[in-house]
Structures are given as structure tokens and as C-alpha cells.
Specification:
- The chain is mainly beta.
- The chain has 3 domains: about 160 residues, no CATH class; about 230 residues, no CATH class; about 100 residues, Immunoglobulin-like.
- It is built from 4 helices and 38 strands.
- Strands 1-2-5-8-11-14-17-20-23-26-29 form an 11-stranded parallel β-sheet, covered by helices on one side.
- The chain is elongated, with a radius of gyration of 27 Å.
- The termini are far apart.
Amino acid sequence: MKTQSTRSLPSQIIIAGLLLAFLLSLAGAAPSQAAKEHASLPADVLTVPVTTITVNSTADLDTSDSTTCALKPAEPCTLRRAVIQARGLAPAQKPVLIAFNIPTSDAGYNSTLKIWKIQFIGISSNANATLRYLNGSIIIDGSTQPGGRTTGPRIILVGPGTGQSDGIKLGETATQNANEIRGLGFQMFKTHIYVNSASNIIANNWFGLNDAGTGIVLRGGGEDDGSGNTGVSVSANVSSNVIQSNVFTGIAGVAAAINGNDTNFSNNYIGTIANGTVPGKETDPSLICLQWDWLGGSGLSLSGNRNLIENNVIAGIRIAVEPPTIQADAIRVSGDNHIIRGNKIGVDATNVEVGVCGRGIYLQGGTEFNQITTNQIIRPGLSAISLNDTPVVSTSDANTLRGNVIKKLTPWGEIEGNNSPEDAIQITKSLPDAFRNFNPAAVTSINGTAVAGTAGTNSPCPNCIIEIFLDDTDSINEALQSLKVVTANAAGNWSATLPFALTSTQGLRTTSTTAQNNTITGMSAGTTTGLSKLYGISYKIYLPLTIR
């Protein structure tokens, strides 16, 4: 009679997890700098595999949709064949890890950079993408490759031809969930990754960067083509995907199109090189955002519901367009209940101000109940935050702005043919008159650090949340620092103590956020106004003045 092991399945999984962590530590798996700065993030927990398939060659021997590594054991195990083999595993054999152990004698090895490049020769006819669909619980982790560099992905994937083919698709159906793409570089793809299912992880990858992470790899069409059309595209109605600690650069269409729900898009670099800086940014005002400037690519678009956009660096973005076509927004928002917070727009990872060529955050018509908080929007080419509406179709409502810092060196200007001038917080003419004409809180006295005020003129605001911003006295509307947030009383009156007294070259601006429905006619609680006019220190001179 056979004896059975008394070790339980959970204990086996724990031991396997410890072994995997040990092996990865030996391989020197290198997270991005963004990941290092934020130690506890959703993608930091590694999934314990049941099965491991090891790629041992950079070759792409054929474009068969059926050949596996197991079927051809005498031949190299390629990434294409490993994916096909992983797809065929039974549910009990998953999660499956596709790991790498390619020798330095391989033709795709770069001894200077200590990386391995996989050049694909064609696409999967089944998936209409370079590789076949990942059909659930398949992990591809480039950081498992032993002996490579510690400053970026060790495995670089290069699309076929001139970069007009898509890369990897996660989920052939919406139920093929929990795939992971980690530690890979992507070059010469149209859409690098499609996400068609839920609970996938995309972490510590490069999209559009050269091998060294110091520049951009353009596709066959040059600047107009960018380094790709889309970095990551998340389909509508899929949920709980994590896109974390990646770098997106030079993407012509949109770095990430997040159309699903409950996505976590955090700690990514957009428009920069691998270390989060923009070394090629023009400083000559006459050349900024023109064809000689850094081609950082586009920002991200957001729809669906309840997505989190947090702690990303979006700097140096520019696409190859000419007026009257306007530059891409850093974050373009539709949908509801999103949280957009702590992002650095126009500031690189080392806090150098480099700007972005388009708008900072653009809220399309019909967006509701979004929280736009604690973002830095520095030197945008157009409005820092743009509020819009789609009358009759749907109404923008209950969008809360709080703690956002806005800085601009040149006047906001106006786009020819646009009915609304650009501004720090742009209130477009598409919005309801009740909102456009509602005045934020007024400052009635500044005495050292003591400030007091009322509701805005003809704009009763009982119990509203008043935010007080620092600005200078130039002609440009800005919100250089959030100084205080206070709550008005039922009459709309309020007071605050500033952290310091103002100088003669400083002033205050306010916003008001409603605390109850219909304070602004037809709009819900949580709606934030635009910025107030500037309130400075008033000086009184008493006559007669006697000079002795």
C-alpha cells in the first residue's frame, strides 16, 4: 500500500512560495525605481505557481499556434511555445509561471547591457497579436532571468516588422483572469498589451524605451507613429486590474486606456526615460512643445467606474501634431467615482519642472462623483484642470477638487475657435449657468495670519468646505500652495489661521465645495467651484502725513 504525505497542501504552497522568493533573490530581480519608493503596493506580492515552464532561448522559430516546448523537447523552448503550452494546462496545473533561463551564449544576449532580446518573426493568426491569448493564471516574469542587469528589464520583446502588430492579449474572454506580465521591455508594437479580463497584474515593464532606458524606440512611421499606438488598453466592463511601476514613453495614441472598473494605476512613469527624468526637454521658450522638443508621447485616458490613478509621474509628454490639433491631455477623464490623487504632472521624478504640452486633467462632460486631490500640475501647455459638460446628454456633477497645486510661467491664453479661455481651473461655457455664475468664497480680511471671509457674492454657501490657496501677484491665475481647508457656518461665514503671514507680493485665492445638494442649483453636494479672484494685503494710509 502506498503511503501518503502528511504535509498539507497549504504548507506545500507556503514552502513553494518561500523557495520561489529565494530563487528570485538569487536572480537579483530588479523592481523599478518607482516600485522601490513605495514598498507596499498591490503588485508586490508574488503569486506562487503550481507549474513552471522555462524559456531557454531568444529565438522565435515559427509562428505556429499549436507547437509547445513539450512537443519539441529537442529544440529550444521559446516564449511563443511556452505560452502555447501554458494555455493547454488544466486548471489544477495553474497558476503557471513562464520563467527565463537563457544562456549568455545566446545570439540575443547583449553583454554590455546584460539583457536578452527576443525578436518576433510574425504573429499568431489565432489571436491577431504577436503571442496567443493568455487564457488565465499565466505569469510571464522577465525578472526570473538569472545574471542580468538590476537597473531594468532583462528580457526585451521586439515586435515583428515595423511595429504595426499588437503584443500580448490578456484574456480571450472576460473570464480568463489573473494573468501577470512582469519585468519585460516592449518595443515595436502597436498596442503593447490588451487587457480583456479581470484581476491581471502588469508591473515593472518598459513600453517604448530603448534597450538602455535612455531614449525612445520609434516605429516605422517615425515621430507620427511614436513608440506605439497604446501602451496598455483595458477593456470596458472588466475589473480589478493592477498597472503598477511601469514606464510609458513616446506612445502616440495614449499611454494607457483604462476603460474598465476598479483599476489600480499607480506609481508609473509616463513621458520620461527609465529613471523618471526628461533629459531631452527644451528650455528655450520658442522651442517648447514644437518638433524639436522631447517626444514624451501621450498621457492616459480614463472611463468606467471607481478607478484609482495615484502617485504617477507624467512629465514631458508631447505628440507629433501641429496646430490647430491640440496636444494630448495628461489625464483625460470620463466616467464616475474615480480617485485621481498624488500625481505629479509636469514634474519629473527628481522634482524638476519640465511641464506637459497639453492640459493637465480634463474632465469630459457627464463625469460625476470624482475625487481630484493632491495633484501637482506644473507648467501645462493648456488648462491645469478643465471642467466640461454635455448638456441634455448628461451633466457633470459632484466632482471634488482638493489640495491640487497649479503653477504656470506664462499666461493661460486661448485656443482659436474655443469658446472658453484656458485657466488654472477652466470653467467651460458648456457647464450650467448656475455653476458658471456661482462665486467661490470671498476673503474679507487678512490680518497677519488671521483670515476671515464670507460666501461669494450672490452665492450662498451654507456649511461649504473652503480651501485657501497661496498665489503671487502676477497676472497668471495659480494655486501655488494649499494653505488651509476650513468649514463655513450655516451663514457661509468662515475664518482660518494661515501657516505664515503674507508678503506684499503674495495673495490668496479660494475654492468652495458644496456640503449639501442644490447649493448650486441642480448640482449635488461635493461640487467644487473654480478659483476665486486674488485677494491681497490692503494697506491704509492716514492723512495728514507730517515729515520732520
